[in-house]
Amino acid sequence: MSATKTYSTRKFIEPAIFLRWFTFGLISVALVASWFMGQTQIRKTVAVESDAEDYTEVGPLTLNPRAIGATRIKAVANIPSNHWVTYELILLDSQGNIVTSAMKEAWSESGTWNEDGESGTWSETDLDAGLDVKVQASETLTLAVSVLDYTATSGQEITTPVPIEVTAHTGIVYQTPLWWGWIVTAVLTWMSGYMIQTGSGRKAIFKTIPDSDVGARGTLGGSLSLVHLWLEITSDETTPPTLKPKLWIRNADGEDIFRYTYTVTPRSAGEDVRKSELNVYFRLREKGSYGFYVEVMPDASVDRTTITVFDGAKTAGRVEVTDIDNVAIDMLDDLENDSDASLTGFTQKSDF
């Protein structure tokens, strides 16, 4: 005969967890989809003469209005080390008028360094330019590139053409906000799950002592309330591979209504420190005064034991919950013994 029942349930999951996971999943899908939404219209390398009054056409570019995404134009100048070039990306309409443009001061530098008897080489570049375009109506524009100035770092003008690689992709989704959203939602989802796992609801009991035995009493429970016991054990380097905390729950009359011995595995938390945790969940059917008492065995290595009990707790996922009736274990044992004795007497009378 038993006054307890243990089962697995999702009944007490915090509803906000579902929203955070849904948001995280939605952003993840959007990130993956963004890689496949773009279409390349132009990929070409052009040699552009240095002439501020002229430009070199790259090719036609068809633009369409989009609810999501834009047309992204990127360019990379290919210049030798220790050279500077100022170039411009230009979009022209059918009459040759400039619709929009973007200018870039690109450079490539290198050299040597000496410091404290050591030496080496260094090189730095900044050669990329970009232009994002969205339109309200479909139209075809001409993409062109102009080199405004091309010199060596010494100031000498360079007259050779500048090779510039130009690409144009349509339907590109801005990934930077998506990546920031993905990171933020991932952190918030993890933090909320961790905070719920380590305690949510009203803190009904809290006690910590520098020993292996700890216990305290509080008012909690009720058929609709989840009770969460969080046990923390701090021990030294001599801790065995497993510790066995034994838990008693007592009612207002001081009678044991639950007894169970758990097994926890310590983890390293420093050179000479081991940490162990136990998270268990109960549903005390009657609201009232209950005492929670723990004894950790073996106790030689235990430095500190902390017990925290939350009433009205929530969970981050499926958990094992034990329902407990306010019936003393000794009374249940007596009833079970009486039942066995009655059954034995009936059997003996029948045999007689």
Short synopsis of the structure:
The chain is built from 3 helices and 20 strands. With 352 residues, the protein is an alpha+beta fold. The protein folds into 2 domains: 4-13 and 201-339, Sandwich (Jelly Rolls); 38-111 and 123-172, Jelly Rolls, CATH 2.60.120.
List the helices and strands and how they pair.
Layout: E1 4-9, H1 15-34, E2 39-48, E3 56-63, E4 70-77, E5 83-92, E6 98-115, E7 118-126, E8 128-133, E9 139-152, E10 162-172, H2 175-197, E11 202-209, E12 213-220, E13 227-235, E14 244-250, E15 256-261, E16 267-268, E17 274-284, E18 288-297, E19 302-311, E20 319-324, H3 329-351
Parallel strand pairs: 17-20
Antiparallel strand pairs: 1-20, 2-10, 3-9, 4-8, 4-10, 5-6, 5-9, 6-7, 11-19, 12-18, 13-17, 13-19, 14-15, 14-18, 16-17
Overall description:
The chain has two domains: 4-13 and 201-339, Jelly Rolls, CATH 2.60.120; 38-111 and 123-172, Jelly Rolls (Sandwich). It has three helices and 20 strands. It has helices spanning 15-34, 175-197, 329-351; strands at residues 4-9, 39-48, 56-63, 70-77, 83-92, 98-115, 118-126, 128-133, 139-152, 162-172, 202-209, 213-220, 227-235, 244-250, 256-261, 267-268, 274-284, 288-297, 302-311, 319-324. The two termini are 29 Å apart. The protein is 19% helix and 50% strand. The longest helix is centred in the middle third of the chain and has 23 residues, at 175-197. The strands form four sheets. Strands 1, 11, 13, 16, 17, 19 and 20 form a seven-stranded mixed β-sheet that branches. It has a five-stranded antiparallel β-sheet with strand order 3-9-5-6-7, with no helix packed on it. It is of the alpha+beta class and 352 residues long.
